[in-house]
């Protein structure tokens, strides 16, 4: 209450984190944890099923490229470069979508995750139609690398724009560093420790599940990853309907 007859009514509001309501933040975290699991499965498929190449973790490809140039057997310059280029192109397209997120963050995030799901579903259908893949330099193998890497590039551009701390969905180096450096052992206060631990566990579980499903076929884990992207898209679209779009 202020002086005179000027009375200000304080209405209850939901706690916000980075401009988003607490409910939306929780929903967003759930979608990103699901996508983090998907990343583990995608990299399990690409590394184990496509011949020592990553289509989600580009850091690994840069390292593999160095190994290949040094003549280490089992890694391929062509596969690593193809994945990097496809990811780069996907990230460019994702960046174009990310610039529209100022209008409606939930909507355009949902669109990007929907595109990711469609690309991974395309990879699922292609791998099922093609049958068994040989780890050679066939065109079919590069199509699969391209589809999955483009999908991951689109997603990473959007997740980068969302800028949720410790939830990049693909890279855990800074997450693990933060968990240790901010811990009570280092004199810190353990901020966001639960988010960091769940992110690490999510990637771990995704990789394990992907490796297990790969025993059935390449198509099986890819289908699961496409479903995860579609679910994340639906979550974001639902958030838009409930909240009128995250601003």
Number of helices: 8
Share of residues in strands: under 5%
Query: What is the N-to-C order of secondary-structure elements (H for helix, E for strand)?
Result: EEHHHHHHHH
CATH topology-level fold name: Growth Hormone, Chain: A
CATH architecture: Up-down Bundle
- Strand order in space, largest sheet: 1-2
Terminal CA distance = 30 Å
Present the secondary structure layout:
Layout: E1 16-17, E2 20-21, H1 22-49, H2 58-69, H3 77-98, H4 105-130, H5 139-162, H6 173-181, H7 193-213, H8 219-243
Antiparallel strand pairs: 1-2
Helix pairs in contact: 1-5, 1-7, 1-8, 2-3, 3-5, 4-5, 4-8, 6-7
Report what the structure shows.
By secondary structure, the protein is mainly α. The chain has one domain (21-243): Growth Hormone, Chain: A. It has 8 helices and 2 strands; from the N terminus they run ββαααααααα. The protein has helices at 22-49, 58-69, 77-98, 105-130, 139-162, 173-181, 193-213, 219-243; strands spanning 16-17, 20-21. It has a two-stranded antiparallel sheet with strand order 1-2. The longest helix is centred in the N-terminal third of the chain and has 28 residues, at 22-49. The radius of gyration is 20 Å and the shape is globular.
């Amino acid at each position: 209450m202020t002086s005179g007859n000027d009375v200000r009514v304080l209405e209850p509001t939901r706690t916000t984190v980075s401009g988003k309501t607490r409910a939306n933040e929780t929903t967003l975290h759930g979608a990103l944890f699901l996508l983090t699991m998907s990343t583990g499965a995608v990299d399990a498929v690409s590394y184990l099923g496509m011949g020592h190449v990553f289509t989600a973790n580009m850091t690994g490809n840069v390292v593999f490229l160095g190994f290949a140039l040094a003549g280490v057997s089992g890694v391929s310059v062509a596969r690593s470069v193809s994945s990097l280029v496809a990811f780069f192109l996907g990230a460019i397209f994702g960046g174009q979508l990310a610039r529209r997120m100022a209008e409606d963050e939930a909507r355009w995030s949902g669109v990007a995750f929907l595109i990711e799901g469609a690309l991974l579903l395309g990879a699922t259908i292609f791998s099922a139609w093609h049958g068994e893949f040989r780890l050679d330099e066939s065109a079919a193998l590069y199509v699969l690398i391209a589809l999955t890497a483009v999908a991951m590039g689109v997603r990473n551009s959007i997740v980068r724009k969302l800028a949720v701390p410790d939830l990049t969905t693909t890279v855990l180096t800074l997450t693990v560093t933060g968990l240790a450096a901010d811990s009570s052992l280092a004199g810190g206060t353990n901020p966001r420790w639960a988010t960091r631990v769940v992110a690490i566990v999510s990637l771990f579980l995704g990789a394990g599940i992907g490796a297990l499903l790969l025993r059935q076929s390449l198509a099986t884990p890819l289908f699961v990853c496409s479903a995860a992207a579609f679910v994340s898209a639906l979550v974001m679209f639902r958030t838009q309907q409930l909240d009128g779009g995250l601003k």
